[in-house]
Amino acid sequence: MGATLSAVWSQVEKLILDGISVIPVRDKDDEASVRLAKTPFGSWKKYQSQRVDKSELWALMEFHNTEAVGIVCGKISGNLEAIDVDVKYKTGIDAILFKDIKAIYPELFVKLRIHKTPSGGWHILYRVADGEIPGNIKLAGREATNEELISSPKNKTYNFIETRGEGGYILAPPSLGYSIQKDADIPVLTWEERCSLITLCETYNEVIKVAPTYKPTKTESEYYTENPWDHFNVNCNPVEFLKEFGWEEFKSNPHFIWFTRPGKNKGVSASWNISKRVFFIFTSSTELDANKGYHPATVLSELKFAGDKRKTYQHLVSNGYGIVKPSIEKAIIKKRSLSGDPIPVNFSPAAKEQFEELKSVIQQDHPYGIFWEHSDDEKISISREGVYQVSNGLGFKTFDGKVVQIIDNVVYHRTERYYYDTLKSYIKEEEADIYEDICNSYESFIQKSGKFTIERLPELDDTTVLCDDMHTAYKCYNNGYLVITANDITFNGYELMDKLVWDHSIQKRNYAYGDGGKYIEYLKLAVTDFPQAKKVLGYLSHEYKDETTGFIIVLTEQCPDPKQGGGSGKNVFCNLLKLTTTYTSKPGAQAKFDEKLFPELERSANFRYK
Hints:
Elements: H1 2-17, E1 21-25, H2 54-64, E2 68-72, E3 80-85, H3 93-104, H4 106-111, E4 113-116, E5 122-128, E6 138-143, H5 146-151, E7 157-164, E8 169-171, E9 179-182, E10 188-189, H6 191-202, H7 218-223, E11 224-226, H8 228-235, H9 238-243, E12 248-252, E13 256-260, E14 270-273, E15 278-281, E16 292-294, H10 296-305, H11 309-318, E17 323-324, H12 326-339, H13 349-365, E18 372-374, E19 380-382, H14 384-393, E20 396-399, E21 402-407, E22 410-414, H15 416-426, H16 432-455, E23 473-477, E24 480-484, E25 489-492, E26 501-502, E27 506-507, H17 518-526, H18 530-541, E28 553-554, H19 570-577, E29 584-586, H20 597-603, E30 607-609
Parallel strand pairs: 5-10, 22-26, 23-27, 28-30, 29-30
Antiparallel strand pairs: 1-2, 2-8, 3-5, 3-7, 4-5, 4-9, 6-7, 11-17, 12-13, 13-14, 14-15, 15-16, 18-19, 20-21, 21-22, 23-24, 24-25
Helix pairs in contact: 1-2, 12-13
C-alpha cells in the first residue's frame, strides 16, 4: 500500500499545502459494510471545521487501504466552492456551459480550475474572498423521462448542475480516474463573480417554477381563439420588451438571451429561454421575484401595471393582441358599422377590411346614422335620440306647428304621413327577417310616439329664410334669384346664397333676361299710363309691406259701362302677377269697405281690388 500511496501522494500533499481540508474516501465498493466507492470512512463532520495534517492523513489512508481522497468544501478550505456538472443526466450541457462562460465571462474562464470526472462530468473549483459559501445548491435540472419514471417512480427530476459548498465534498484527482483538465491554481473570486457563474448555470434549469398566468374568463374564452395574454407571450420580442423597462441585453446564444437589470452595466440578472419563451429572474433587486420564471405578459403586468390583470388585459387589447373568433368578429362588425363605433384594434386584417367596406355601404345607405339598435339578445329597439338625429339629417323641422323639410337651401311643406314614410324608407337592411323586425319596431314606435316626436322636432328659425325687406326684393327661379333694389337688379346663383328659400316662392322656370317681350306689349296695350303701371307692378311684386302705409290697388275698365266695352285684361293682369308674388283678389261688386275688409287684407300678402 505504501508504494501505491506514494504514487498519488504528491498531488494529495499539494491540496493540503493549499489549505484544503482533505479526507480519505473509499476507492472501491465495500460489500461488507454496503458502502460504495467515493464515500468517506465513518463520520467526516469534524473535517468541516478542522483540517487533517499530512502525517495523520497518510496514516488514515494506509489504515483504510485507499488511494482516494475527497476535498471538503466551504469555509474550512478557504471558502472553497465547486460546481458539479453531471453530463449523464444532460448530454452536451458541458460544451454549452463552457462555451457560454468563455463568451460571457472570458476573464473568469481563464482563472478557473477544472477537474474531469470518470463519467465525463466536470468540477469547477474556486474560492470566494468576500462572501460566505452556502450549502449545496441545485442549479439546473430536468424532468424525468417516461423510462426513468418507470424504473424510479419517485425521482421526478434529475439535476445536472449543482454546487458543493458548506457541508459538501468532491473527489480529488487522481482518485478513481478523476483528472485535472485545467491545471490552474484555485482562483479567488469576488462574490459578484461567483454569483455570475452561479446565475449562468441556473439559466439551463428546465424545471422552472413559473409565476401563475392570467386565466381568461368564460366569456373571454368564448370570444378568442387565442387570448391577448397568450398572443402576447407568443409574439413578444423579449429584447425590445425589456428595454422599455430599462433592462439591457447582455449576451446571447442560440438557446438563451441574458439581460442586465436597470442600475447595473453588466452581468446576468435575468435570462430568456428561447424555446420555452420564459423569462427567469435571478436578481431580487426588481419588482419580480428571484428564482422564478415569468411569461412576458406576466412581466408586463408586474412592471407596468403593478400586477393589475384587468389593466394589463385592456392594454394588450388596445395594442392589437388577442385573436378573436371569426364568428364574433362578424357579429361585432355588423353592429359597429351601424352604430358608428370603432371595432377593437385586435381584430384581424380581413375583419378590419370588411368593416371599412361595410362602413362605407352603411354611410351611403344611412348617412345620418341609424335610429334602431340591436340588443345582446338580438332584439330591436328604437332610439328616440337616434330618430331625432336622423330627422335632423334629413332636414325635418316644424314651422307654425307644421312639418317642413329643408333640402339643400329649399324649405318644403310636408305632411305628417310624408315624414313618417320618409323615416321608414331610410331603413335599409339586406336580411329580410331583420328588416321586418326593424320596420315592426318602428311602426310600433310611431304609433305610440309619432305625434310627440314631431312636437320635439326643432323649430325653423324664420330669420334664416330669405324674405323681402323695405329696400330689397328677391325673386327666385329654378336657376337662381334676382336681387331688386330701387337702383339695380342683379341675378345670382343659389351657390352664393346663405339663406333658405321657401319652395312655393320659387317660380318653376328659369330666369332669362331680355328686352321687351309679350308681357311688355300686353301692358302697353292694356293700361293708359305704362310708366305709372311699372311702378304699381314694382310695389305689388314687393313682398315687404309697411303696415303703416298700406295701399289698395283698384283695377278698373276705361269704359264705365262694361256693355260699352271691357275685357281689357284685368284677370290676365292678375294671373300674370301671381307668378311673381302671392296673390289674393276680390271682385269689386263683392267688396264692402267695412270692419270685415281689413282683417281679410291682413291675411293676404297683397290685396288686389278689381
